[in-house]
Target: Aldo/keto reductase
Amino acid sequence: MEKVILGRTGICVQKNGFGALPVQRVSLNEAKIILRKAYENGIQFFDSARAYSDSEEKIGLALSDVRENIYISTKTMATTVQAFWEDLETSLKMLKTDYIDIYQFHNPSFCPKPGDGTGLYEAMLEAKNQGKIHYIGLTNHGWKVAKEAIESDLYDTLQFPFSYLASEKEEELVRLCEEHNVGFICMKALSGGLITRSDIAYAYLLQYKNALPIWGIQKESELDEFISYQKQAPVLTKDIEEIIQHDRKELAGQFCCGCGYCMPCPQGIIINQCARMSLMLRRAPAENWLLEKWQAEMNKIKDCIHCGKCMTHCPYGLNTPELLQKNYEDYQTFL
Ligand code: SF4
Ligand code: SF4
Model:
């Protein structure tokens, strides 16, 4: 059984965290069954966000009676001190708890620091003094902000996308976290659905002793896969390494990971799916993506007015309209 220590927090948990974004999409009853099953099978770390609609509420309803046995991290997108406190109080209420283990700034466009004029970091410290949060974290999709947060030594944890498709720069962040004793919480270890073999994703992450993956779990079958790795961890065999190399080559360069930070589009284009349709068609069962619903969504690409809003918000610097166009052309051929 692999365990991870989250840097200076000292939080020591199974190398299997529960990412509670997808439980928004299932009924309360289904969410309760999945969350409870995760807990009963040794998963101790649950990550949510104020922005994930009823995800916190579902965690509160499923796990408040075992609160002291689990760790909860959640996030705020607040940009003002007032909104920070409102979010924190709402999260505590929804989670049915009087403390949050790790409270994170949710993908801020800058790294909040004391004295930067926003008062946000000071609010974190005050919340810590009041015992409402135990540790301060930051989540990000941007390499620069993430690096600044680690090097500032103001943050106990960093949450960042990381998978076997990561570049050297991203691997550097994991190493930097280790050097600074910052816990590394790894999101999108399946790269937003591009990686379809969870055993390979898990085996790859086993090499990083300080990385705690939080798997976005929506179905019991997905949960069962991750639970099984606790009992018998997949090993990085030669065959698996070859698959990783092959996927890296196939997906080399920049690709849309589906994070959605470029949304909404004024023309209603579902950018975070449409800009990676070619990959989804070839890497996952294609039938769903060829339904009329998705044909209609792909047709919206023709309505792009090239306003450039998506490009300015893409943390990976993608030329999104161009990517959309390429995916549109490929989709028509595929059809
Ligand atoms: S450039 Fe096109 S896809 Fe991007 S936000 Fe504007 S209309 Fe939407
Ligand atoms: S285009 Fe960029 S911001 Fe938009 S979903 Fe893809 S990776 Fe994320």
